[in-house]
Amino acid sequence: MKKVVINILIILYFLVAVIVTYLLLSYNKYNIVETDNKYVLTLKEKNPDFKESDLLVVKKSNDYNKGDYVFYYDTYAVKVTVKYAKIENVKTINDDEKEIQLENDLILSSENILGKKQNTTTYKTLGAVFNTLTSKWGYLFIIIFPMLIAFVYEIYAIFKEIKKKK
Q1: Distance (Å, rounded) from C-alpha 46 to C-alpha 88?
Q2: Which of 6-20, 72-86, 110-124 has the lowest mean pLDDT?
Q3: 27-34: long-range pairs with CB below 8 Å, 24+
Q4: Model-level pTM?
């Protein structure tokens, strides 16, 4: 029974390692996880609707209207961040492109908008786990080092078994 539980824990660990590695490989140029039609992120700034420890899965959208709350790339800062604001005005330039004015008088292209609040799934406290696992040191100590130790142990066990047969 003990061996079964240990094997299940090892399988879960490797499953988490594969998922985290996939997420790290899915970063876009702004260091946000981007899959086919979703973004996975945590907000760095204080916000009344979301906590820093919330993991947000934002579904991409192209239909923006006045009054929608949206997540957007703030490319005006030194480091690009994701922020959250209300749309004040939407001006259509062509079928694919819209000019969006936010409540803070910032005007953005629709390509800088990630998605709407209503299309967002929030996972409480998973954001802190996500930030830890996807950080340089977190990934190194939680994913890489344990795998390296397991690999070295397996090599040691193989050599020990070979010596035993001689």
Answers
A1: 21
A2: 72-86
A3: 30/73, 30/80, 30/82, 31/80, 32/82, 32/114
A4: 0.83
